[in-house]
Specification:
The complex is a heterodimer.
Chain A (H helix, E strand, L loop, with lengths): L3 H13 L1 H37 L4 E7 L2 E3 L1 E2 H8 L6 E5 L2 E5 L4 E7 L7 E5 H9 L5 E6 L3 E11 L8 E4 L1 H8 L5 E2 L1 E5 L6 H11 L3 E5 H11 L5 H26 L1 H11 L4 H33 L5 H6 L14 H27 L3 H5 L1
Parallel strand pairs in A: 6-10, 7-9
Antiparallel strand pairs in A: 1-2, 1-12, 1-13, 3-11, 4-12, 5-6, 7-10, 8-9
Helix pairs in contact in A: 1-10, 2-7, 2-8, 2-10, 2-12, 8-12, 10-12
Chain B lengths: L3 E10 L7 E11 L4 E5 L6 H8 L7 E6 L2 E2 L5 H11 E4 L11 H6 L9 H14 L15 H13 L5 E5 L7 H16 L3 E6 L12 E6 L2 E2 L1
Parallel strand pairs in B: 3-8, 3-9, 6-7, 7-8
Antiparallel strand pairs in B: 1-2, 1-4, 4-5, 9-10
Helix pairs in contact in B: 4-5
Classes of the chains: A alpha+beta, B alpha/beta.
Chain lengths: ~375, ~220
């Protein structure tokens, strides 16, 4: 029977064994922290990639020649506009600039809000440029002997998309990448009817056998695969967390059959029903698990989105991309899944043995 | 009408198996309101089993136990628990207190199932502690108590809900003579409070006490 006195008594019994419960709280919380942090990082990266993908057309088309990427032109656009189901074809410009001083490539992307003298860079790139004394402006070297100077207008957070990117307007991008006015790096094909995407993706290579055709669902699947949370190193993390979890559960079950057995029998003898015993154990362990769950969630959010996941980030991004920040996400489905796969089995591991002991003959249990 | 009526009571363990053991055989016993009964017998005679059936700790194999005319032998768990909580105070040989809790937390445990107000709770607690003469130790952890104090704590817990029946299983087995005599004094208090008291014991200290209403001997699961 749930009432204030019963709740107080449940908490008193819990505090009596605060050492044991604190141990469970810490271990359980740590397992949730690790699992949640890994999922938050992978989901955040995937979200950034997918948001970037949403800004593209339903199909991306690249040209190849002799196995190399080759620019597309207005003729290609005109031909593709003839394909039934295609609503629009937009030519896009992007590419890589070789920053020879640091032996690295910067991605050049288009932002048409910028003027002809400015650029926006990520924190990662800004740090590199600063190391080479380019604090306010940067000189692009355009072979054979031209120089293009752009002011650094803004420095944006490095995300998985932007960390290696310099944003300029299309005119400047063409100059840096040495592309003609009617040349494009790739084409965005707009297909309003999603049922037709697959069909159009099959038609295009028949018209242009050299074209590389990437429907958005395939790119999405690639991203999913790339950050698949059951893959590789994540699998090891999950296995470690899982084993720890089962050890914890076993420990809990043993403690119910051991030290808690007598306690349950005493409570039964003074009038606690089976339902009261289950309620008591539920209250105690709900406080521990839900407390640990929410504490671990808050710590995971702080760890990933405030402190940028030190140590764990290297598993995802490697050592180089140090300035990348993870875009905060809130995925209720993911949090509910973590709850179901951690809190529920933990509670079951306590409640089922407690129930089995509670239904025992009281006089037998007291012996 | 008798307070407790025991009719043709049997308790058989492992019935129908090779290891079958008849702990109680055809027990018939009536106990009146306010009566103090001592059940005497050697270890293994069936006294504790009889007490556990009277407290609805377990169910008989055959026969029945009526308390205030109600058959408690076949009660579903929720009613059996309510019966234990409201009508019976049980004093165990090994006290069966919850280690780690204080005296008052142990004593108050049977009351937490009712939604009594704090003042009601405090009043019942104070009364029980006073009757058992353990008020001065109420904040002490039970693990730090002596054997006699532990028993007084167990008595306070048995009394806290003001039950009409007190059952005591070998209450002096873990006590020295001085504390055993103190327990006998507490029995007198129970008598004054008009409680039904059933004590299962083989301790001779309970022999020939004038305030005891009845002695019942039990051997090999049968009343002699």
């Amino acid at each position: 029977m749930l009432n204030k006195n019963f709740l107080n008594f449940s908490v008193k019994l819990l505090l009596k064994e605060k050492g044991d419960y604190l141990f469970s709280f810490i271990i359980f919380g740590f397992i949730i922290f690790i699992v949640t942090s890994v999922l938050l990082i992978s989901e955040s990266i995937k979200r950034d990639l997918l948001v970037a993908l949403q800004n593209e057309g339903q199909i991306i088309v690249k040209n190849t020649k002799g196995g190399r990427y080759y620019p597309l032109n207005d003729n290609h656009i005109d031909s593709l506009l003839q394909v039934s189901g295609v609503d629009d074809v937009i030519g896009k410009v992007d590419g890589y600039y070789n920053f020879a001083q640091d032996r690295r490539f910067f991605k050049i992307a288009v932002d048409d809000d910028l003027n002809d003298t400015s650029m926006v860079v990520s924190k990662d790139i800004y740090k590199i440029l600063k190391d080479f004394k380019y604090e306010k402006e940067f000189n692009f070297l355009i072979p054979p002997k031209n120089k293009l100077t752009l002011q650094i207008k803004d420095v944006i957070d490095s995300t998985i998309i932007s960390n290696n990117t310099i944003f300029v307007n299309e005119y400047i991008a063409r100059q840096i990448l040495q592309m003609e006015e009617d040349e494009y790096s790739y084409l965005d094909i707009v297909v309003p009817n999603s049922d037709e995407i697959e069909n159009i993706a099959l038609i295009i290579p028949r018209i242009f056998p050299n074209f590389l055709v990437l429907p958005n669902y395939e790119i999405e699947a690639d991203y999913d695969h790339l950050y698949y949370y059951k893959g590789g190193i994540f699998m090891i993390l999950y296995i470690v967390a899982l084993i720890s979890f089962f050890i914890l559960l076993k420990n809990q079950i043993s403690s119910v059959y051991g030290s808690k057995r007598k306690e349950i029998a005493i409570l039964r003898s003074i009038g606690f029903s089976i339902k009261d015993i289950i309620s008591l154990k539920f209250i105690q362990n709900f406080l521990v698990t839900v407390g640990a769950y929410f504490t671990a969630l808050m710590l995971s959010y702080a760890y990933v989105f405030v402190f940028n996941a030190p140590l764990l980030r290297n598993i995802f991004l490697g050592e180089i991309e140090k300035e990348v920040v993870f875009t905060p996400i809130f995925d209720l489905k993911m949090l509910v899944l973590i709850f179901i796969f951690t809190v529920v089995p933990y509670l079951a591991s306590i409640l089922i043995p407690s129930w089995r002991l509670a239904i025992e003959d009281v006089s037998e249990a007291m012996k | 009408m008798s307070k407790i009526v025991i009719e043709n009571l049997y308790k058989i363990y492992n019935e129908g198996k090779d290891s079958e053991f008849k702990a109680l055989k055809n027990i018939n016993l009536n106990i009146e309101d306010g009566e103090i009964v001592i059940i005497k017998g050697v270890s293994g005679s069936g006294k504790s089993t009889l007490l556990s059936l009277m407290a609805a700790f377990s169910k008989p194999s055959r026969g029945r136990v009526l308390v205030d005319g109600e058959n408690i032998s076949k009660l579903p768990d929720i009613f059996a628990s309510k019966f234990r909580n409201e009508k019976v105070g049980f004093i165990f040989q090994s006290f069966n207190l919850i280690d780690g809790l204080s005296v008052e937390e142990n004593v108050v445990a049977p009351l937490v199932l009712c939604s009594s107000s704090q003042s009601e709770l405090d009043s019942k607690l104070k009364n029980a502690l006073k009757l058992a003469n353990i008020e001065h130790k109420k904040e002490q952890n039970v693990v730090d108590l002596s054997g006699g104090e532990k028993q007084r704590c167990a008595i306070a817990r048995a009394l806290v809900n003001d039950p009409s029946i007190i059952l005591a299983d070998e209450p002096t087995a873990n006590l020295d003579r001085e504390n055993s005599l103190k327990f006998i004094e507490i029995l007198k208090t129970f008598k004054k409070l008009n409680k039904v008291v059933v004590v299962a014991t083989h301790d001779t200290i309970f022999d020939n006490l004038e305030f005891i209403d009845r002695y019942v001997s039990i051997a090999n699961g049968e009343i002699e």
